[in-house]
Amino acid sequence: MQHDTQDDEAPGWSAIDRALNRIYSRQEPKHYGTVIGFALGGNDPLPGISAYKRIAPVPHWHFITYGFSELYAKESDDPERSGYGFELTFRLADPEDSEDPPTWVLNFLQNLARYVFKTGNAFESGHYLNANGPIAADTDSAIRAVAFVEDPELPPIDTLNGRVDFLQVVGLTNEEEFALKRWSTLKVLEVFRDFLPLWVTDIERGSLLADEDVAARLAEGSAREGSSTGMLFTDQLGWEQHKRLLRSPTTQITLGANQVGELLALLPLRLRFGADFYFIGKEQRIVFEPAQRCSAEAIEESLHLRLNDQALRSLVSRLRAQAGSYEIEGFPALQVEVKQTHIRDQDGNIVRTIG
Fold first, then answer.
1. What dihedral do alpha carbons 139, 145, 148, 153 form, nearest 10°?
2. HEC string of 101-138?
3. Beta-carbon neighbour count of residue 47 at 10 Å?
């Protein structure tokens, strides 16, 4: 879509149009604008989303957002970056050769925008996010997570308001998202690219890890290089220390059963490669560190938990996603308490209990 204002009135919008025109010079996109602007109290942060129809390398719709960057006047203090510094793109498989793109994608992209505008947290290439359900509303699709990578056809552009990157949203299954955590987002996506041309999202597909070759390549990568995931966030985390006369204090950490599995999978892939791992709660955090001798040191709201290889092996082998108390061989002053995790619906009702 060529914006109908002059370049000097909407330089950011016009710059995006020019970038797209290099690919779609003969196509007028389907464009969807907001009725009530976000600044005027509307619910949609993005003033526009365009969709282009593609035949190759597989039939798909190519969506592009307008609004994460500064489309009109320069308002931010950063001269190098336009707004949040990016726009999102999304490629959705279109095996039916539909005349119009599905409208759920518009709300999906607006939801991502609401997250960014509400929290101020910008996406970057290599980030990933779990959608806590199918990304396609009212479906039972296995695609329930997304990762972000540079759009393979849209390089960064320099506008009068600063640089804009085009970050493509790639739909993933929960199993594939966990594979990202165990190794590296971008390296896993490169493996997937052999099966997902241009990283087109197909909401009808199953997990790529069902392919033995894919699973083996990912396992080899994480075993060779460890994990690039340096932190996990959780709602259930606590720690406290109790002083003892003439001895080091005892330390008790409390975890929720829901994230025990992820923690145990990622810790060896960090500590055995000489890297720390941050487990971050609402008010406290635990920093797991590789060490020759075990120790626990409290520094403000952070507990620095130093584990040798014996304690790490014991932690991984003994700890379970089951409520109870666990002792760690080689670290007698440490006790791990696992509590049940209650999964609640939007009304606060418990729909599932883990542990």
1. -40
2. CCCHHHHHHHHHHHHHHHHCCCCCCCCEEECCCCCCCC
3. 18
- Range of the structural domain that residue 235 is part of: 231-343
Which position has the token pair 């409290």? Answer: 298
Number of domains in the chain: 2
Residue 37 scores a pLDDT above 80: no
Helix axes 212-225, 185-193, angle to 10 degrees: 150
Q: How far, in Å, CA of 62 to CA of 76, rounded? A: 29
Same domain? 121 vs 249: no
> How far apart are the C-alpha atoms of 71 and 14, rounded to whole Å?
8
In a domain, 82, yes or no: yes
In a shared domain, residues 196 and 213? yes
- What is the CA 259 to chain-centroid distance, rounded? 16
| Local structure of 44: helix, strand or coil | coil
pLDDT digits (tens, 9 = 90+) for 147-199: 999 999 999 999 999 999 999 999 999 999 999 999 999 999 999 999 999 99
Phi/psi of residue 211, each to 5°? -80, 120
Phi and psi (nearest 5°) for 337? -110, 120
Find residue 48's DSSP bridge partners. 33, 66
Q: Which pLDDT score, from 0 to 100, does residue 346 have?
A: 66
Which of 225, 255, 282 is the C-terminal boundary of a domain? 225
Residue 250 lies in a domain: yes
Burial class (CB in 10 A: 0-12, 13-18, 19+), 264: middle
**pLDDT for 239-294, tens place per residue?**
999 887 777 789 999 999 999 999 999 999 999 999 999 999 989 999 999 999 99
Instruction: From 159, 193, 225, give the residue that closes a domain.
Output: 225
Give yes or no: residues 276 and 203 share one domain. no
Q: Which of 62, 85, 67, 70 is nearest to 168 (CA)?
A: 62
